[in-house]
Hints:
mainly alpha, 63% helix
Amino acid sequence: MSINQASVTAFVKLLESDIIPQSEITKFYQLNRKLQEDDEIVTAIETWLKHPSRSQLLASYQENLKILLSESNVAQVETIPGNVKSPTKPNQPSETVSQLFHNAMIKVTQTTNSGNIQSQPPTP
Length: 124
């Protein structure tokens, strides 16, 4: 798992935990919905979390990220080079960082806003 993928996954875990007010999630996504580059998405997430009012969210995010990265490193150590198992099911493309971010944001914002944010599928 790349650092960018781990970062977005850690953020998605925060979104799914319902500890972030829906209004803040919606505002965040409205400001960042056009981002497509992995680095831009991660920078936007981390900049948003570094706001002083979100220090507890930042701590939770960092803990999630630490766990994901350590799990990823353990998985890499336990596999034999050349014998790597993909977490993606056969004949199914893996989700890019951009797709992971946008799909999670759309899912979370539409859960309670049903239609306030029109979904735009990310361009590959």
